[in-house]
Design goal:
The chain has 231 residues and is α+β, with helices and mostly antiparallel strands. It is built from eight helices and seven strands, in the order αβαβββαβααβαβαα. The protein has a domain of 156 residues. The strands form two sheets. Strands 4-3-2-1-5 form a five-stranded antiparallel beta sheet, sandwiched between helices. A hairpin with a 5-residue loop joins β2 and β3.
């Protein structure tokens, strides 16, 4: 049965609308990491002193066809708490180099080393298992940020990572953790490890102000502000 010109135009309009949805371009304003997991790895970074200091950033970056850098950044505590913060951002390579990497290096005056993508995933997967066994869940934004790994196979990494400090979980409170937070964490550790199964150092008052930890968290807050700018 023949269709009218009006019906034909309606069908064409629907097709155009559908096509527009299916070819939607990936742009820096998108906040989901999963669509970017198909792009090639640019670099993966961790602080050189991560396993001696216990706290630092893990960065996994990919390069988009337009030359932008899509990356996930995780603040990780390899001594005890696991993934304390996580975020995903897309920005120009210049912004990534000058705003993100320079700030990370400046914070706490430390240097970073590149690791293989399989090792980055192995490190994070192992830490997640370790912290979950202790009773600690990762930051809520972790799942989205983790999607940047895509189909990377952690099993091919030859690296062996150990968590905790001197064979035990080690908890040192940070400047943004209240007394109630610290008590809750210690209670969780006591339940999972026993009273003598972990070590701890509780800092009070001005002592915390001198810790490198506060600088990490301030840097991550700056990055979260950037994340809001790109939304």
């Amino acid at each position: 049965m023949a269709i009218s010109e009006q019906q034909r135009q309606k069908k064409l309009a629907k097709k155009k609308q559908k096509r527009g949805l299916t070819v939607k371009k990936v742009t820096p304003t998108m906040t989901k990491a999963k669509p970017y997991a198909k792009y090639p790895i640019h670099e993966c970074l961790i602080p050189e002193d991560l396993f001696s200091s216990g706290l630092g950033e893990l960065v996994v970056a990919r390069r988009t066809p337009s030359g932008d850098i899509a990356f996930s950044a995780f603040v990780i505590d390899v001594f005890c708490l696991g993934v304390k913060d996580a975020m995903f951002l897309v920005m120009s390579e210049d912004e990534y180099e000058q705003r993100i990497k320079v700030e990370m290096i400046r914070t706490a005056d430390r240097t970073f080393e590149k690791i293989h993508q399989s090792s980055a995933k192995k490190l994070l997967d192992g830490l997640l298992n370790y912290s979950k066994e202790l009773g600690f869940l990762p930051h809520p934004d972790y799942k989205n940020a983790y999607d940047i790994f895509g189909d990377i196979d952690a099993s091919v990494s030859p690296e062996i990572y150990s968590y905790g400090k001197e064979g035990k979980p080690f908890y040192m409170n940070g400047p943004y953790e209240s007394e109630a937070d610290s008590k809750r964490i210690l209670k969780t550790l006591t339940k999972s490890c026993g009273a003598d199964g972990f070590d701890t150092l509780i800092m009070l008052g001005d002592d915390i102000d001198d810790m490198e930890y506060i600088e990490y968290m301030e840097a991550m807050e700056d990055m979260e502000d950037m994340e809001d700018d790109f939304r």
